[in-house]
Amino acid sequence: MKKEDISDNNPFLSRGFVEQPDAENNTMGCFKGSCSKLDVFDNPTNGNPQETTENPEGSENPDTTERPAGVENTYPICEVRFKNTSKSFYRIVEDIRLKKGDIVAVEANPGHDIGVVSATGETARKQLAKRGISEDSESIRKIYRKIKTNDIARWIAAVNREEETAEETKKIIASLRLNMKLNDVEFQGDGTKATFFYTAEDRVDFRELIKILADRFRIRIEMRQIGIRQEASRIGGVGSCGRELCCSTWLTKFSSVTTVRAKVQQLTLNPVKLAGQCGKLKCCLNFEYEAYIEALKEFPDSNVVLKTNAGDASYIKSDVFKKLMWYSYNNTQDNSMMAIPINMVKDIIAMNAKGKKPDKLEDFAQQKEERIEIDEGIVTPDDLTRFDD
Question: What's the CATH architecture for 161-226?
Fold first, then answer.
């Protein structure tokens, strides 16, 4: 089989391959690292014992080159990546020389799966410690071997079935009227098992579905429910910022996001603007939260009313990083609000505590503007033309 460049419609792209491997075991150059959360960047000087030099030009078999003196597989565990966001650790049980990018056959239940080595040696050890997994854990399965010609042929056939299987399964789900959404299908490397990833709001009785799928595709079926955040990370997309979704490029741990994060950052609680493609609050609300918390420590209590001879003024909003607080008079028809530096707000509060009042806030204001009330909670059809006015 001739190696085919199918970058426009590449079923192996989700596994990190720029082109489809071929059955002649010529996989050199197929796997390419990219800006992905599944990629691990090895430092060549980090003491990685399994990194080897490139195959000398003209050598027919890269495995026939002699191992440099003193280089052994001293760390017997590798990190292996599969489709999309799936990674796991596997134990090297035989004297196999592995490096990042090698395609290997690993233990599965049942049969074997095919994956790509993403980290070895010291880097793999650090990744294992980061996950909190013990080196002696029984959950770490075995690496059988580097893939052979027949392994690649079966793997290609299995991967090429995924899209067709997903489309047929969606039709079956619709015919059974099941309240679930199929997100992805991942075939095991030997083609004997397929995992169906789905999302659902309630519990789904898919026993009949499994019977139909097993009879239709003649494989072992595993149904795996995922959350809507995990769904977005597997499907991917472009966020309102114009960049690829964080969950599908680099974010590996989902932390809870609450409206408190938006309030601290002085954001309008508009669900349309604060929600990501998954329908939940955007993960990026967490990114600058700590910086806002640290900056707000310098701010006085916003519940304190400023008393002046011109009238009492209440807090409206803050500009955290400019260190400004906006106030407006309570007893006036004027809708204007004034931006006052926080050090001057503290001075006014201190004067009020001593029973003194400044003449007016305008003497302290850095800038002044009209207060405009905008209801951003509901999006109407007129919002589609709001940029035309």
Answer: 2-Layer Sandwich (3.30)
